[in-house]
Specification:
mainly alpha, two-stranded antiparallel sheet, 9 helices, 4 strands, 8% strand
């Protein structure tokens, strides 16, 4: 199991402190991939740009896809840009991967088919590992979960405990989530103004 998969399981297993947006989760998953690939020495950072390194297959299909999607020619891609590009639809990809691996199931809603039901983690070693990381306030998982609104910020300087490179990723995830929320608010204001125009006529 990987940090993105642990994060995905946690989001299905605990009640978030605010409604969890799919786009926020996708950005968090992309950040989790970067942190795992840093740990695997598949990449490094230069001036907050992602510099790929030689890396054997990770054994995880989605992480291998992340590696193959890295820009390999200078000037390399900034962390923030990669999060947006890689994050597009990533929560659905991880949900499908966990379901295919038998790590989650679908809760039935009456006559609706299983696919339409709510995704819930099954009791498995993967779930127990994610739960253990969550219960121990492991810095990376806790900081990613806080960035996307699953929990409050962890006590102390959890991000710093994860290391300088991880701090770069976590800061980029926070910035991207805030940017996405600002865009949602802008669109909501525009839609409300449009509705008001129609009501006035």
């Amino acid at each position: 199991m990987t940090t993105p998969r642990d994060l995905m399981i946690v989001t299905l297993d605990v009640a978030p402190i605010r409604p969890l947006e799919r786009g926020d989760l996708s950005l968090g998953l992309a950040g989790a991939e970067l942190i795992d690939l840093l740990d695997a020495e598949a990449l490094g950072f230069e001036d907050e740009r992602i510099v790929p390194r030689l890396c054997p297959p990770t054994g995880d299909r989605l992480l291998d896809e992340a590696v193959s999607s890295l820009v390999r020619q200078p000037p390399y891609e900034p962390v923030g840009e990669w999060l947006w590009r890689r994050g597009r639809g990533l929560s659905s990809a991880y949900l499908d991967a966990l379901e295919a691996a038998g790590q989650i199931t679908r809760r039935r809603h009456g006559w609706l088919p299983v696919r339409a039901g709510q995704a819930v983690p099954v009791d498995s070693p993967a779930r127990r590992r994610a739960t253990d990381r969550w219960a121990s306030d492991e810095p990376v998982l806790a900081s990613l979960a806080a960035a996307i609104g699953v929990r409050e910020e962890p006590a102390g300087d959890a991000a710093a405990a994860a290391g300088d490179a991880a701090v770069t990723v976590l800061a980029a995830v926070n910035d991207a989530v805030m940017e996405l929320e600002a865009e949602r608010q802008r669109r909501a204001i525009e839609e409300a103004a449009f509705d008001n125009v129609w009501r006035a006529e």
